[in-house]
Amino acid sequence: MTETDTDAATDFDIEQWHEELEAKRAEKDEFFAEHPQSPIPPEERDGFGGLDYFDPAPDYRVTATATVHDDPEVVLMDTTTGREMRYLRTVTLAFDLEREDDDLEDAALELAAYQQERPKGDQSAEPLFVPFRDKTTGQQSYEGGRYMELAPDREIEDGDALVVDFNLAYTPFCAYSETFDCPLPPEENWLEVAIPAGEQFE
Question: Where is there biased composition of kind Basic and acidic residues (predicted)?
Fold first, then answer.
């Protein structure tokens, strides 16, 4: 789950963040290795040695400004099996990516956040879904893109600040088994920068 506590943008304990990130990664590795619902095929679990990750990178934990779409548009996302899934573009997240490497310029970026279209009257809350591609896609990370989820503790309003931690970006289950069908990030969420944070996949 991606952190969305706006206070965390100013009150950030990097050591605690690092410990919590490593704990989440260890927990996920255990799930993949042992849980019956693991996407790793049963015959391959004995040889599973853990997921590959980029090193923890605080620079890729950013604060995004939310623009809420009161009348969200339908976005059709292709899936890995050739189907289409209907999502609503409910929020746009704008953020600056500040990078300390002298060879990299800071970047002003946007990502759309979606919720799956539901029947009218269904008001059940669900996390915001943020699929994306970046310059690591197909090289250091999965060719079908990666996902993040945001779970705000209240209804998002225009101008809200949300913490988006790319260190929690994960590979969809369809990368590990063809039994899963996963939506592919739409072109509006293709970032023209590398995001070397989160899960790797080769």
Answer: 23-33
- Taking 70 as the threshold, does the pLDDT of residue 179 lie above it? yes
Count the residues in the chain: 202
Residues 6+ apart with CB under 8 A from 183: 77, 78, 79, 85, 87, 131
DSSP string, the chain: -B---GGGGTS--HHHHHHHHHHHHHHHHHHHHH-TT-SS-GGGGGG----EEPPP-GGGEEEEEEEEEEEEEEEEEEBTTS-EEEEEEEEEEEEEE----TTS--EEEEEEEEEE---TT-----PEEEEEB-TTBTTTB-TT-EEEEE--SS---TT-EEEEEGGG-B--GGGT-TT---BPPPGGGB-SS----SEE--
Percent of the chain with pLDDT over 70: 88
Q: Residue ranges per domain, the chain?
A: 6-200
* Calculated CA dihedral for residues 144, 133, 4, 92, nearest 10 degrees: -120
The pTM for the full model equals 0.90
Single out the residue of 88, 113, 103, 81 nearest to residue 183, CA to CA.
Answer: 81
